[in-house]
């Protein structure tokens, strides 16, 4: 929080650019370098695969049927037990060990000592008799993702309603954050007033304040004025700025040269006018960053919607709706995992589109303080 | 905007000087200050209404018997709540749970992002941009989604972690979430997707280290380990310090994961009955505001104390370039 840290950050951001440029000119040429390059890249690929593998598992589970999930020897990929339709009847297909090797055959006449099978590839050839108990045989499976899990969850969780609530709360909050944080950041960045650095330090200190110490009176007051069970406790405080976004905006505004707002002031523009027509047009990268940060934060927030909307399922957001859904459908992991993926798809897409904005914002708030 | 004559401005200044040492405002300076306060007023009001007032109120609650239902008449009870809390076995048990978990979680929350950042910063690495994006990605996954995905991952029968352990020859892999020996490692796994921002912050810090220092270390005969110990770690210490303080505040407030995975029952064997969970239950389940507020202030004081100790120790291990 002193000048040392500030200088450090300048070097940090300069380093981001410098290193990328350097990398381009220093390709590993010697065999030792190539081997080293392969080793470190390979290790990181393995670590990354392990790090992201839970997403793959969730996707696979979400496409399985309860039948497959309860079967211990079921295949890895989403599948259903194979059946074979022949002359108007459905027969289960088993893996039958025959002298010439295992084959997938349809069980037409089960028996305790021996059973009759048909070859689905050539049913006209007649039945094949196999000695042994058919109950010891393993089922054959056909690859078949249960896409219907997603449409089931869509209806069961009332996804359109939750999606609307989540987006509405995120967007209204976004407006609140943008308006209030821009004003506050502008005040801290451009105006001298007594106690400015003290107030700014208090602002930053609120980042480190445990939320537990304020939640009880806040909840109590919201409860007394009848706001619990409405969106107001989630939306109103957002209109009073927050430390994280104010800091991000202020750091950016400090980099905008003062000459232009001084010129505007000489032309007779008031501070508001200067903010809207001189500062904001130059600050749009950070404004977008703050908007996206808030959108994702609001989308992922769990605690506030949980405490303020627990009695009103029709007003809840996806995060809380998903937790409630898990409480009801935890016996069907496919439904739960389909719900988790449906809940995370939008923030993940937003991140992939704006990933540079994310990393830059985190560097500013994380390193410069 | 009427331009007042100069003499009028002087009299106003002498009459209404603000009682702040060293601030002798001109009319222009006072106007500027007024605009400044106007612009920061949303935060100032928000801070007073949503942070300072609730903090004071919750401190006040600790000296009363206030509750949401308020069956008994409201009364001042002095230090009664604080005495009850200090004699309450659950307070210390929950605090112990929180500290035991922190002891495992904190080193991992510090070392893992730093190691990954060092690897991502290696010049030999191919495609560093893609790695950066993909390691950060889980950070934006909604909290509840992440917990439910990892809960499946750690499942005794169907989880991939145990599938991997069986594959490596471990016959009876642990029942992670239901075994009091393995619950904290399990919770660390669930929290592992939160390291994205720490990786980015560490990476930016690493890139701020001047390469000349590594060249100098090389000339002095330092190997990889020597450079790490004598260049990387000292120069990264401000970043490590910042990450540590944030992680401490986070870990001492930890309770949402157990709330999602077992509805806050504290299973197995009370090992997930974290301090903040006790506070949450006291207030939201038993609606005891006064005792909840006492627990909240206890948590605040503990967090403050631990942070101050770390701040105090930072003089010995955090290195700021250009100082002294």
Kindly list the characteristics that best describe this protein.
heterodimer; A: 369 residues; alpha+beta; MetI-like fold; 3 domains; two-stranded antiparallel ribbon; 8 strands; disordered N terminus; B: 324 residues; mainly alpha; 2 domains; 68% helix
Describe this structure as you would to a colleague.
The complex is a heterodimer of chains A (about 375) and B (about 325). With about 375 residues, chain A is α+β, with helices and mostly antiparallel strands. Chain A has 3 domains: about 5-60, no CATH class; about 85-140; about 155-365, MetI-like (MetI-like fold), CATH 1.10.3720.10. Helices cover about 65% and strands about 10% of the residues of chain A. Chain A is built from 16 helices and 8 strands. In chain A, the strands form 2 sheets. In chain A, strands 2, 3, 4, 5, 6 and 7 form a 6-stranded antiparallel beta sheet that branches. In chain A, strands 1-8 form a two-stranded antiparallel sheet. In chain A, a hairpin with a 2-residue loop joins strand 3 and strand 4 (about 100-110). In chain A, helix 2 crosses helix 15 (about 335-355), helix 9 (about 245-255) runs antiparallel to helix 12 (about 285-300) and helix 14 (about 320-330) runs antiparallel to helix 15 (about 335-355). The N and C termini of chain A lie close together (about 5 Å). Mean pLDDT of chain A is about 85; it is low at about 1-25. The longest helix of chain B has about 35 residues, at about 25-60. Chain B has helices at about 5-15, 25-60, 80-85, 90-120, 130-135, 145-155, 160-165, 185-190, 195-205, 210-220, 225-250, 255-260, 275-285, 290-315. Chain B is globular. In chain B, helix 4 packs antiparallel against helix 11 (about 225-250) and helix 9 runs antiparallel to helix 11. Chain B starts with 5 loop residues before the first helix and ends in a 7-residue tail after the last helix. The relative contact order of chain B is 0.11. Chain B has 2 domains: about 5-60; about 80-315, MetI-like (MetI-like fold), CATH 1.10.3720.10. The interface between A and B is large, with 109 and 103 residues.
